[in-house]
Here is the input.
Amino acid sequence: MGRGSAVKKQLGLQGLRVAPSQVYGNFRLVPVLRDMVRGDLRMTQRKYKDDLAVVSLGGEPMAPGLKYASYIPHGLVMSWDKQQVEAAVETRLTKPDGKQLKVGPFSLRVMHRMVRREDRQQLRLLPLHLAMEGFLALHFAGPEIAWHEYSRESLSRGLSPRIEQSVPGWANAAFAQALRVFEIHEQQVGMLIYRADVLLSAFILAHPDDYRALHQPMLEDFYGELLLQYGFLEEVTPLGGSIHEQRVSSLKDLRAEVARLRQDWADFVQDVMGEGLLKTDVTATPVYEAGPFTLERFITSLEPSAENHIGEMILREEDGTIEYLKTYRLSAAQTRRAYLLKQLAAAGWNLDDAALNLRTTKAELIVRIHNAGFDHLFKPEVLEQAQRHQSRR
Amino acid sequence: MKELAVALRAEQVAREDLVMFVNACFSCTGQHEFYNDARGQAVSIEFLHEYILGNYRRLYTRTLAAGINHFNRAQIVLNLLATGRDTPAADRREEGALIAATLRALPPPRAYRVLELLRSRRINNRRSRAIIREFVAGRPDPDFDAVKYRSKLRSAVVHAHLKLGDERGPFLFHGWRKRVYTRPLLEKFRQAHYTQEALFELPFTIAEGLAYKHGIPRAVFLERIDSRLTQAERLRLQGSAARADGTELSVDLSRVPLTRLALYALSLSPQARQERRAELHGALVQTTARTLGRAPLTLGRVAAVLDNSYSSSGSHEKRRRPYGVALASHYLLSAAAREYRAFWTTPVEDPLLNKPRGQTDLATPLLDALEWGPDLVVVVSDGYDNGPPNAVADLTRIFRTRLDPGRRTSIIHANPVFDSELFAPRGLGTSVPTVGVRDAEDLPTVLGFARFAEGAAPLSELEYYLAARVRVLLERDARKRGVPSPLGPEVSPQGLPEEAEPSLEEEEV
Here is the structure.
């Protein structure tokens, strides 16, 4: 897995078009259409029926080393060869992928790498887990300098095990309904999912047929906890806009006005509703070079005040078109954890410097980091002293 | 002055309530729809029935004659019989006559189901018993009913304390355990419990269970029962017969009602539809001609905006019904109009070979239709417009106010889907009247009803319209039975065309 260096860029939606949203309860599903489909990149789903999957991130699958463990219901198989594209779409792939083990009543799959070349022009990737792994691996090694506040455990093992929680799509019955009643457009290749008008996830593919096949399986993917948290907010309105009556004096004008409504909506989505993902700088890291495509994963600024997403995408190298995109919205707690780690790392893991940067005291920072969910990062006596100091104030 | 305003407002409220109710009665069947579940639909329509019954009893009764669907007719009959005490003395005669006529006009399974529900809802009064007695006595083939609807008839007989007087009494209560019957069909039913041969003389639904009991292979059974099948059963069994043993059941497609034929055609696989295209198309054209022969409809330059979006695929209870209604309307309007063009939401080459797919962009086909300059635009859609949302509401409003204030082009929205949250079929804004439909065959009726949905006609006209339809219904019923009309000749229905007989004869035996 050749890892390049991170670059800052904006996603945008070049070559893609946004159609009017369809609303169900407080879900707003915004279809993304592609007018020019090249057809040289296809994705198919590969189902895994295991209770748990363990992915080895380096080294051999069964050897000790760094592992990523999660429930993984399916992977995506990407093919970019003309001949192979047809085969991948027509046939059901049942090639063994990793190794299946029985652990009591459960089945466990041990897989080799997040992204794995299976054939000359075929790649298997684990959607969103790739991005999530990148997120979990942020400053995973722990303190680089053995400042005396850090516990022995964190100095020797880093942040392992680093755990985050997410919500599967099927945890929300309304989401299942929303996907069921959604009317898929002919050229649709993707969807922006909003809950209570907050962007939850974006999913874009290269080919409309692949999207149609992968529409319902979106229920199996995992989402940020806003999928549940915003469940009781009121219903969203359809947001159609209205026609300017004065501008209409013939049927032609009326047609132009309807076209304007569509365009206004598309602009509104790109500029306002999708701003936190599409119009902000993201830090993207190339993960894999696959022929004319690059697979990258990215993360937004991690500012606690902004909306934050992680995700992965496949870009066409020649013109930077997005051929695949899948994102995950970080919850506030998840953002906070990553933000604090980032601040620590920026200050060389020196707590005094970090506290200075954050305009706070060292004791408060220690309590904050502890409360954010890093239980064993500090020595118990350091933590106790900081807590005592805090409560005295 | 103030009193006048109040009276006017009351009149408007009454009119809107009634239009809403009649529209709901055209489209709702209490079944699962694409967007709403069955429970919501049932709660919603039940509320509407209670509300209208409580406030406008006479008009509620007269809705029975408006050409509404069978489900709602049955509901109205039940509700009226349950609350007979509230009927004003002046209306008793008409109400009784309407209930009796409605029961006679319903398909027998539905009518018997009403009688059964009377028992389970414990509705038992003198009038209900008289209605039951009259209905049972008026059936053309008592023995056949006793065999085919045995349990339902039995519950009705028990409930209304009927004395049947002939062999049906012992037949209903002892069945095949009695020694011998003199009536041939009852005797066959008894014999069929012991021999296989007698079973093929029985109605299909009864024979089916007995065939299983005797272990007769499905293919053999279907082949030999062929002559006993009703048209609807024949159509329904086509697929399963072919699966069982490649048995071909002969079915005369041109005798099937229009919407059902369209739904049958859509239920076939794409290959089968492709192969039988000419046959299906021919049958649809023929059926359309027959439908129009019974309920003449002549229109000028007509454009149809038809919804074939994914939501027109209906639900597991109403498979492809919205699309089927659109397809049947397509045939009906093309035959009734002098000039006709269809505009589908997703353009199709051949609507018969297509399937519901894609988003609902009503604005584009509607604009195309208006540009063509028709006299009448009929929109057949479930009213969910998402490309962009509610654009059609704006578009039609501006078209009406700025481009066509003289109403040269009239636009009517026919909606086959009842929205349980709105208590009505979902509309397309205030400028387009929305009417509910169950079958495309209702179109002539609902086009006549659309002026009330538009809000242009006053309540008195609606009352007159319903009264006239009541008269037509009762006269037709009386003529069929060869008795004088129960209402006497004081009011005559002027200018109201003879409406289509609901196509029961075809569906039934």
User: Anything to note?
Assistant: The first strand of chain A starts at residue 7 and ends at 10. The radius of gyration of chain A is 23 Å. Chain A touches chain B through 28 residues (CB under 8 Å).
